[in-house]
Every structure is written in structure tokens, then in C-alpha cells.
Amino acid sequence: MQGFNIAEYFGIKPNVLDMTNVGGSSFEIHAAHAKRDIAAGKAKVALLTYGSTAHSNARAIGAGGRDGGMHPADNMDRFSGMTLIANYAMVAQRHMHEFGTTSEQLAEISVATRFHAMRNPEAVKAMEDLDFINIRETTIEDVVDSRMIADPLHLLECCMISDGGGAVVIASPEVARDCKKPPVWILGSGEATKYPENGGDICTSAAVQSAPTAFKEAGISPSEIDIAMIYDSFSITVLTLLEDLGFCKKGEGGAWVEGGRLRFDRPNDGPALNTDGGGLSSNHPGMRGIFLLIEAARQLRGESTSQVENAKLAVAHGNGGMLGSRHVAGTIILGRD
Amino acid sequence: MSDKPVARPLPKFDEADTAEFWAGTKEKEFRYQQCDNCQKIIFYPRRTCTGCTNSQLIWKVSNGLGKIYTFSIVRLSYHPFFKQQLPYVVAWIDIDEGPRILSNVVGCDAEDVKIGTEVKLEWEIHENLNIPLFEPI
Prior knowledge:
The complex is a heterodimer of chains A (337) and B (137).
Chain A: H1 4-10, H2 26-39, E1 45-52, H3 72-77, H4 84-99, H5 103-117, H6 121-129, H7 140-145, E2 148-150, E3 153-154, E4 164-171, H8 173-176, E5 184-194, H9 207-218, E6 227-230, H10 235-245, H11 253-256, E7 272-273, H12 278-281, H13 289-300, E8 313-321, E9 327-336
Parallel strand pairs in A: 6-7, 6-8
Antiparallel strand pairs in A: 1-4, 2-3, 5-9, 8-9
Helix pairs in contact in A: 5-10
Chain B: H1 19-26, E1 31-35, E2 41-42, E3 57-61, E4 65-74, E5 88-95, E6 100-105, E7 118-125, E8 130-136
Antiparallel strand pairs in B: 1-2, 1-3, 4-5, 4-7, 5-6, 7-8
């Protein structure tokens, strides 16, 4: 019920409409466009909304049929039976082949996000509602011992399918200064797309184009980031994006995440990852990008259930579409006063 | 509920850019395009070159040999056809002449599939077209 339906529901008559739909990264793109439109004087306040009943509707997102549409690419792909999970798994397989990345290293991402989820009552409730068994902090062994869904990705490396919804208000500085909550500023944004190319590199995502644009606009470097809200559809999504966002070099992500580095209580080792519990362990209604913005804002306001002390800078990076083929990246850099 | 066998989802013939490719499969030819101006290999088939602005693309026929660029063994699918095939291998295949195609690796144990494995075309026969699958050499 996005766009005009929301306007009608609330009786709003907006001056700018943006129903850009690029999957999970849509909301980072909306935020970037809202900032642009507000800066251009086209609008003063933007409302970003999202709601989905993917779980209640039993939508088979990760392992369902992908018959596709009438795009020529769809007409070449549909006979293969590639599931969405297998698409990402093929990135992981190649990453392991090229760089020696291991399942244990990828599991670090699942373990860190579950660690954060267990501190978030809403995430625990979500896992209970979805009948997760044995809800607790996980170990690397738990992840690599869980069943294989699409080699080399195990069950606990795949996000859940939940219901969910969220909203973000983006306002001009004049409006934001007058609000009850302390403002969180959009310091930079970047957008990019990537698609399969003959001879192309599947281990590198569109983030290598969107992130430098966003960081340059913000005037900061990745090493200054306290909070990394990175779309965790799968473990490999985060590993690839940590590299592409510039936290470490291409191929070094596996070693970089080792030893619990991504936990919120390790602030000297780099950013905390997905402190709400992420798509892996808190919610994933199909297009998770809005929650990346929401938890980043909570961290910068000191409201997270896994609060990083004195968090000043956050990145929210959405990946929409499929990492191993065609996708859209949206990078948003956020800061506080 | 009937137990009628479900078939593999097949491409559509009325998709303009890829129709020539699928027509070729009926002849067991793996057709791809090359730009007449900048010599770039174009695949999937399109109307214009992605390397320059030329729209003179020449159709060529591959020898059907290639290597596995990456793959996954699918162990969970809810698709009515593919769930009957589990586990099966999906892979990006780098064809020797340049095209990269998404397909299945067949004719071997899924557990034996490796990146870099040399493969050759293996046509799956259908009524109006054939499906290009790949088998380790």
C-alpha cells in the first residue's frame, strides 16, 4: 500500500511522489531522493512506508519458482530452476574458490546478528511467532551444522520470511530541528546497479559504485563508521558488501569478520553489524531496506537494544534484486549532531 | 489433486530479442552475437551492442564447450517441476567463445561438480526447441 494508496489513506496531498521499486534497496533510494527533493525545495517532509505480509501469505521467496517476466534475460534464465538462494549461493561458491573464504567465516555473520537479536525483544518475539526452534545465541558450529539449502549456504545463513512494516520521516533541517526526537542527518547517498556480464566478476556488487559516491558526499571514510546496517538476506551478502563498502579489501572479508568482530560490544574493531538482529534473526518481510534506516537512526539516538556507546556515524546499505545477477545498491550515510 | 507430471518451464518464443537463440536450439545450435563494429561478444541476445552504439550484431554458432564459472547444488525448491529434480546443479557456464549462460550441470553426481570443470553442451529435447544443459567432459 505504498505511494498513492498511502496518500489517500492518510488524506495527504504530496508534492512529490517516488514509488521507485528496486526490491530491498528501494528505501535507501527513496531516502536519497527525499533528501534531493527537500534540498531542491520541492518538499519539506517525506514519508517512507513499507508493509508486507510475506509470511502470512506463505510467499516462497527464497526457494519458490522464478518463472520471471518477459524481459529477454528472464527468457534465458527461467529454464535453469535457479532459486533466489542459489543465486546468492553461487556468489559464495565463487568467493570461496577465489579467496579461500570458509563456511566458518561466513557463519560469523549469522552468529553476530543472532547475538544482537537475542538482546532485542521484538526480534525474539518474531522468532517465536515464526516457530523457530531452540531460540538462543548460536555458535559457528550451529550454523555450519545446519542443513544445506543451496551449497554452500546453510539454513542459518539464510534470512527468515516474516511479516513486517516500517516508516521513516525525512524532513528539512528547519522542520527536523523542531521535532521531539533529536535529528539524524543524511550525510551522503549513492545508487548503482549491476548485472551479469560475459567474463564479469560475480564477487563484486554494485556497492563498489554506490558507496564511494556516498562516502565522498559525506566527507568521511569507512573506517569512521560505527554502525553498519547491511542487507543480510544471506551471510554472503554481508561479506561481499563489507568488502565493497570499503571496510576491508576484496577477498579479505572472511578473515576480517573472524572472532566476533561484528558484535556491538567490539567498537574498537570496526562497525557493529545489524544491531537489531537483521534479516537473519529479527525480520525479513521481503524488502528489508527500511529497517536498515530505522535501526541506524535508533543507534544514532542511543535507542538500540544493542547500543554502541557514543555511536556517531552509520551506513545503511540496501541490496535489491539478486546479488549474483542483477541488483540495485542503495548506500545512505547517516550522522548525528 | 492429480499427480500429472509437471514439465520444465520453457522459454517463450514471442520474446523478440531471444527468439533467434531459441530457434537455433531446434537445430541444436548454440547461437550468440558478436558486434560487427567493436567485436564485443553479446549474450543474452539483444538489439544493440553493449560495448558501442552499433546495432549490427552478427549471429555466430558456438562449439558448445566451456567451463563452470560458479555453481550451487539446489537442495530446496518449492517449484512443482524443480522440487522433483532435487538435488540439482545450477551454474554459470563460461562458453569458450565468450558468452556466460545460466544453466544446469547434468550427467554427473552433483557432489563432483567443481568450479573450473570443463563441460560440453548436452541438449534436452523438447517439442519446439531444445534446452542447453551442460555435462562434464
